[in-house]
Design a protein that fits this description.
This protein has 62 residues and is mostly helical. It has helices at 2-7, 11-20, 22-28, 39-51. The chain is built from 4 helices and no strands.
Length: 62
């Protein structure tokens, strides 16, 4: 999602960037010769990030 934010692209454009650009593919954690995710997978991940609250490790109640 950081790549999507920095480039200002849609989910379909993000899918294309992950599939075509080696550096973006590496940053997203995909092997060089593997196929990237399709836009529906990226969309589901984006929805997951929007719904799930961030995990706070090491936070203590005072």
């Amino acid at each position: 999602m950081l790549v999507k934010y920095l480039y200002g692209c849609s989910l379909r454009e993000l899918e294309e960037k992950i599939g075509c650009h080696i550096l973006v593919k590496w940053f997203a954690g995909y092997p060089i010769f593997a196929t990237g995710p399709d836009h529906t997978t990226v969309h589901r991940f984006e929805l997951y990030l929007n719904v799930t609250p961030p995990h706070r490790s090491g936070a203590s109640a005072c």
